[in-house]
Amino acid sequence: MKSVKLSLGCQYFFYFGALGAFLPYFNLYCHHLGFSGFQIGVLSSIRTLATALFPMLWGALADRFMIRRPLFIFCNLLSAAIWALYLFTTGFTPMLVITAFYGFFYAPIISFLETFSMDLLGGEKIRYGELRAWGSISFIIVVIAVGQIIDVMSSSVIIALILIGSVLQSYGAFKLPETAAPKEKKQKGNAKTVFDRRILIFLFCAFLMLASHGTYYGFFSIHLENMGYSAIFIGLSWAIASIAEIGVMVASEKIFKRFSYESILLFSFVMAGMRWIAMSFAVSPWTILLTQVLHAATYGAFHMSSILYMDKLTPGGLKTLGQAINNAVTYGFGIMAGFLLNGFFFEIIGAQKLFAISSALAAMGGIILFFNRSEDNQY
């Protein structure tokens, strides 16, 4: 089990390490290339549209033919190769094409990885957060280091850094063991059960939650730079958020033994509403960094509980598809909607008003989930 956890931990480490270079700095890189807010929003939306659509296709193939591991390795290799093409262009149209093809193969990686974790952890699923924490640790290291590198060099360095991370993850993908396919085959499930009422309500609320993150993920770094903050401070602010989420993930076993998944989800929605409304007024560095601490709830607690909640409700033979749908609706359609909204309005009304809108979206999701929570509270 130790070697399995090490392999999974390495996958999270490299995946979120690359994300630590991408999330805070890729849109900033595009901004420095002279792209408009709308163009940046379109690029981000294309990537997230791929995240929304294609994991379900890959997940269905993996569950149908029980070839999850080969597909996981294949998608890692192809996405890394396509990312390398960014090294040869800075034009909007070619970058748009590269983003579309990259997204097709990159999209299912995280949902596959989450399913591997649920299967390989077995009876220790509530300790998932301890494993996922390695991704947050990597994110912190990378986001701080890249911020310092950019201040010395330029934002273009992130293309090469993400490529290095992708190559390392591709190598590590070969180290993951195959899961118990025969057992999954016996536990067949009808795909319609993935769309029962409880799951649909959760997915809609989760969609609103991730849509509310559009301003943060898409324009937070640009917003800070426009206020005069350095790349080092931008990196520090992202790192503070990841440090906060690690605390929640390390304590995941205790948290999930005491509280139901739905209770934690509701708490996350409340914290998101508070975080975004605070960001709509935040100007001083200390206020900004303080709001980043709430990432522990709005991402850390929400992400863990949503993964476990979906795993609990999904039939055994449809685990990959279930996580793919969850990832598609949230980090796919949800983030895409947030990016499009923010890309269109960023230069019109500014980030502060967009954060206020984000707060309303999170509050709406929490209210809907509250009035549709399960009566037995076993989730």
Kindly describe this structure.
The two termini are 27 Å apart. The protein is mainly α. About 2% of the residues have low confidence. The protein has a single domain, classed as Growth Hormone, Chain: A (Up-down Bundle). It is 80% helix and 0% strand.
What is the mean pLDDT?
Answer: 87
Query: How many structural domains does the protein architecture include?
Result: 1
- What is the alpha-carbon Rg in Å? 19 Å
Count of runs of 4 or more consecutive helical residues: 17
**Shape descriptor:** globular
Q: CATH superfamily, called what? A: MFS general substrate transporter like domains
- CATH names the topology as Growth Hormone, Chain: A
**Would you list the SSEs in sequence order as H and E?**
HHHHHHHHHHHHHHHHH
SS-based class: mainly alpha
pLDDT < 50 runs, ≥5 residues: 181-187
Largest sheet: none
Label the CATH architecture: Up-down Bundle
* Quantity of strands, as a count: 0
Specify the helix fraction band.
over 70%
Beta-strand percentage range: under 5%
Q: Could you give the distance between the termini?
A: 27 Å
